[in-house]
Amino acid sequence: MARALNESTACRRHHVGPIPRQFTHGMAGFPFLSDTRFLQLPVAEPRHPYVVAGLPWDGSVTNRPGARFGPRAIRTASHMLCDATHPLFDVSPIGQAGDAGDIVLPHASHAAMQQAIQAAAIRLLGRHHTVWLGGDHSVTLPILRALRQRHARPLALLHFDAHCDTWPDHFGEPSGHGTWVREAVLEGLVDPRATVQVGIRSAAERSARDFVVDRGGQVWTSRALRGLDGSMALAPIEAEIRRCLSGGRPGDPPPVYLSLDIDVIDPGFAPGTGTPEPGGLSTSQVLTLLEDLFDLPFVGMDCVEVSPPYDHAELTASVAATLVWTYLCGRIRSKKTPFAP
Ligand code: MN
Ligand code: MN
């Protein structure tokens, strides 16, 4: 009944539950609506090609925790996107996507977290193109294990981050949020020659900073991207990124996974994260890259390290919601031809 009541506008039609009209009138579609799903999407069903799933885990951070609250904050911030029709791609995830909720994870065991995420990923990937809301960055490794198994070949990796995440250990422990790229390469989950890192700028010894470059991939540091904004300025770099991600096989490119650590964005734009690094990319730089590279053969995305306790005015959660929405709309747009952004 409530669904029928709310089908009069795009903003209202995903509101579900037995809510009388007098309590919904005039309050659909904005952040004060107590909806808990990304873009107010319906609960995920098998008919949805795309789903969003939360990974509320921050047991593997090196500094400030709080990313376990990231999925909830990103979902709330996404309500500002209302009917979610993208102004560039002219499509909306509404009707094609659902929200699978948060994956139930342990509170403390890193190994149990990895097992739970890999099992959930295998289950979801069987039906849906899945976008993951972190969570700290350690959640990515079990997702890559599931994708490697599903696609039966090493993946290409497009990795936005202030940090290289190729350290050999987690301050004495074997695995954490700063080790997953190295682990993924050493496990054969991703092809290092088809790996691109963007926005790297943190302190790190050379062997970690250049881990990907030393194995044939690309690293575009924040310094290399300073002053480059807009499609015209970024076009030469985008061409290089495309060349690398094709893995030297333009006719049979590997599937691409997009991992986006929100700390790639300058803390001035996105302060709510556990390990902020000044001197980062602007939101528009990252958006331009995502928009222009929309037609790559992506098979999944995560947006991680949003830590709401350190956020202000929902700035960081809003950036994350916008980036995830842009990715989803790019995926949907890429299925339609012809299109040139
Ligand atoms: Mn990271
Ligand atoms: Mn980072």
Features:
alpha/beta; binds manganese (II) ion; 8 strands; single chain; 11 helices; Arginase, Chain A; 8-stranded parallel β-sheet
Overview in brief:
By secondary structure, the chain is of the alpha/beta class.
Any overview of this molecule?
This protein has two domains: 1-35, no CATH class; 36-334, Ureohydrolase domain (Arginase, Chain A), CATH 3.40.800. Helices cover 31% and strands 15% of the residues. It has eleven helices and eight strands. It has helices spanning 2-5, 21-24, 70-78, 110-125, 140-151, 180-186, 206-209, 222-225, 230-245, 283-292, 315-334; strands spanning 50-55, 97-102, 129-134, 155-160, 190-200, 218-221, 256-261, 298-304. α7 links the parallel β5 (190-200) and β6. The N and C termini lie far apart (40 Å). Bound molecules: manganese (II) ion (2 copies).
CATH class of the largest domain: Alpha Beta
Strand order of the largest sheet: 2-1-3-8-7-4-5-6
End-to-end separation in angstroms reads 40 Å
**What's the shape?**
globular
Residue share in helix: 25-40%
Q: Provide the gyration radius in Å.
A: 19 Å
Number of strands: 8
Which band does the percent of strand residues land in?
A: 15-25%
Query: Which hetero compounds are present in the coordinates?
Result: manganese (II) ion
Task: Describe the main β-sheet briefly.
Answer: 8 strands, parallel
Structural class: alpha/beta
CATH architecture of the largest domain: 3-Layer(aba) Sandwich
CATH topology of the largest domain: Arginase, Chain A
